[in-house]
Specification:
alpha+beta, six-stranded antiparallel β-sheet, three-stranded mixed β-sheet, 12 strands, about 45% helix
Amino acid sequence: MKKPLKILISFLLAILICGAKKDNQSKAILTPAPQSGGSINNEPVFFTGKARIKASVDKMIITVGELINYEMEVWVPKGYAVAIPPPGAQLGEFMIRNYQIPKPAKKGDMLKQEFKFKITAYTTGDLVIPPVPVLIEKDGKLVAEILTQEIKIRIAPITRPDELEIKDIKPPLALPFNYLPWLLGIGGFLGLVGIGLGVAFAVSRLKRKPMEFPEELPPPYELALKELDELEQSGLLEKGEIDAYYTKLSEIIRKYIGLRFQFYSLECTTTEILEELKASFIEHMVYKLVQEFLQETDLVKFARYVPSASEQKEIMRKARKIVELTHEEEEKEIKKVASSNV
């Protein structure tokens, strides 16, 4: 009687020990995160809940410039908050055209937070949306950081991405139709129309006034300074149309850079413009100034950043400085060529 009782007691103790171990393991899914300043307080905050994160896109194959809907969905227990670092103007090699952060939704004991991006790319090939860090906070303190999975996207240089798919064999062609009579009739008709147009053109040319040639365009730097003056006097900032102001300002400087260094810049991304300037061997100070200008205007155009009044004045000063410095370099180059030809 005693021996079966001992076996039963041992069995119950083993079950209790295993349950305690599993409970301890479930309370340490993620390690504590350091507080602000890079140090951990004497009483650190541990993330003891279960977090789930999912990143998805609506298209795996796109053409150049086509928009992708990239969404992140994060589930955390109630009492925790979710955030991501400011994304800036780009997500890896993808340009951010727009993004939204809806209000968190509650479902049972869990909280769902979504992040929605509209992104695109202007280079072909296989690109990767990099992992995005997701910050989990409680009572204003960072307690954990997790990453989304990376997603591969193919950028196709053709008109439609479905042309990448293998298609069925085309059916046999029918015997060709005899178009000769039709062609002869149409050719005769077009000949008569051509004769009539030629006569009308000759008559109109006799009555035409002497051709007036358009005025020559001013040099690129004069055109850029004129457009900058017109933009300042447009009153867009006073009306609160900051996006339109920054878009027009970026367009003026991009067009000027293309005319000054002789490449088509209006359809280039910021990265492509900077690569062209590197190949032109401009001074490092000028290169850094152009880089700062393009990045700041991209933040307003694509990331919905709202600059302060001082930043709005400073961006116009930088635009004028770019025109002045690159024009000075152009004059130096002209003098150098002239002296070498003497």
